[in-house]
Amino acid sequence: MTQHSATLAPPKFRPHLPVLPLFPLQPILKRIVRRIGAENPDMFNRLGPHTKARYLIDATNLPFTLLLQPDPENLSLTAHFRTSPPDHDARIAGKFLDLMRLLDSDIDGDALFFARDLIITGNTEAVVCLRNALDDVDGSIAQMVADMFGPLARAALARLRRVANKPVTKDTQ
Amino acid sequence: MTSPELVCPAGTPAALRTAVDAGADAVYCGFQNATNARNFPGLNFTVPELERSVAYAHAKGTKVLLAMNTYPPAGKQALWKDAIDTGIRLGVDAFIVADIGVAHYIATTYPDARLHLSVQAAASNPESIRYYCQEFGVKRVVLPRILTVPEIRNLAAEVPCEIETFIFGNHGLMVEGRCSLTNYITGLSTNLDGVCSPAAQVEYKRDNAGNLTTQLGEFTIDCFGCDETAGYPTICKGRYTTPAHDGGYYAFEEPISLNLSSLLPDLIGAGVHALKIEGRQRSRAYVKKVVSSFRKAVDDISSGRTAQLADLLALTEGQKETQGAFKSKTWR
C-alpha cells in the first residue's frame, strides 16, 4: 500500500524551533539511525517482510516529518517539510513528546492509541512489526541518541523527560 | 496468607527481562509460529532467544511457562511436537496447553513435564477439569473469565489441581479458545491456531473531523467519535447496528479491560494459586508498570498489609475497566 498526502495538517504548536533548511539535519539523522541499527541488528528480524516499508513518523507539533525505511542494507531516516510529505506505506502520528516517550520506553503505545493520542494509518501490519522490533531493544532508544551527542544532548533529554511527565498544560498540548 | 504466584506476559526477550526484573514469579511466552495463541507479526521468541531468556529467568529464580495453547489442524502436528521437544531441551518449567492431542504427546513422551491447562481449553467445571487432570496429569488450570469468586472458591475445593485466574488485561470471554469470528470475516486462522484479527487485514481510517473507523477485511468494526476512547480492532469488541437496538451496539463484548486489583484478597482467600496478567502483545512499558504494581499489591496482601493499588486505567482498553463476572454475573 502506498499513501501520499499532498499536505499534512499544520502543527498546532511549534516548540521554539526556527524554520531552518532541513539539509543540516539529514546527516545527523543518518548517523543516528545507522548507529542504532548497528548496535541492535536483531531488531530487523522482527520486521519480517516490512524492511522495505516506508514509515512516515509525524510529530504533529513539529514543522517537519521523518521518513524511516528500516532496510538493514540501506537504513534511511530523512526529514521532510510538512508541506511536501513523501510517499509512504504507513503513518505514525502523535505529539512530539508522546513519540519521544515511546522511544524512551516510558509509555505504552496501545495506551496512547486508546487515548486517541497516537494515529496509525496505512499498513497496520508494518506498524505492528516496527513497534515490536523497537520494543525489543533493551534500554531507551532516546537515551542512546542522547548519548551519541554528549552532555548537552543528555541534558536536553532530561529536560524533555521532565516536561513530558508534567501535568498537561496549554503549552504542552 | 499464602502468597500466590504472579504470572506475567512477555512477547519479546526484552519484555521477559522487564517482567523478571519487575518481580514476576513466572513469565509465559511462545514461539514465533502457530503453536501459541498470540502469533502476531514481529512478536514472540526464536529458539535461541528462548534459550537465553530461560537462562536469564532461572538465574533470577523466575519460571518460564511455554504457551503451546493452540489446536493443531489434523495431520499437521509436527510443528507442535517439534516445539514441545525444543521446550523440553531448553528447560522450560511448564507447558500451557489446550488441545488434548498436544497434552497427550507431552504426557506420554515427557511424563515428568509439568502441564498447565490453558484458558483456551475453556474448562470451567469440576468434571472437565478433572478429566484433564486424570488423563494428562494437568497440574494447574487457567480458568475462563466467566466465574464469580464464590464459584472459584467452590471449584478449588473440587478439583485436584492448582487454579490460575486472570487479574488484569483483555476481557474477552467468548467461549475462550473456540472463537471463530475472525475466521468468519477473513478466512484466516483464529485463536485456534494462532492469531486473532490479523494486522494485515486491519485498517484505520481517520476523517477530517477526527473520527476513527476501524476495519477488519471488508467489515467495519467500529467508528469512534473524535472525543471517544478507542479499543482493539477485534470482531468481538465491535459496535454494530442490529434490529434489536437503536444505533451502534456492542453486540458481543465491549472494549474494556479486566482489573481485579480490589478483588485480590478475595481471590487469594478463595484458594487461587496463581494470578495471571494478560498482554503478551503489549509493550515493555506496560509490562513494567502492571507487573510492578501487582507485585507490590500481592506482597502487601501476603504480609497482612492493605494493598496500595496503582492506577492502571490509562493502560486499559478504551480506558475502561471492569471486574467482569468475578464480581457479578450481571456486569453488562
Description:
The complex is a heterodimer of chains A (173) and B (332). Chain A has 173 residues and is α+β, with helices and mostly antiparallel strands. Chain A has helices at 25-39, 96-103, 109-114, 124-135, 141-148, 150-164; strands at 55-59, 64-69, 76-81, 90-94, 118-122. Chain A has a 5-stranded mixed β-sheet. Chain A starts with 24 loop residues before the first helix and ends in a 9-residue tail after the last helix. Helices cover 31% and strands 19% of the residues of chain B. Chain B has helices at residues 13-22, 47-59, 78-90, 100-109, 126-136, 149-158, 181-186, 264-269, 284-302, 324-327; strands at residues 5-9, 26-29, 63-68, 94-97, 115-117, 140-142, 162-170, 202-206, 212-216, 219-224, 240-241, 248-249, 257-259, 274-277, 321-322. In chain B, helix 1 runs parallel beside helix 2 (47-59) and helix 1 (13-22) packs parallel to helix 9 (284-302). In chain B, 50% of the residues are buried. The model of chain B has no long low-confidence stretch (mean pLDDT 93). The interface between A and B is large, with 31 and 41 residues.
Give descriptors for this structure.
heterodimer, A: 173 residues, Nonspecific Lipid-transfer Protein, Chain A, 37% helix, 16% strand, globular, disordered C terminus, B: 332 residues, alpha/beta, TIM Barrel, 31% helix, 19% strand
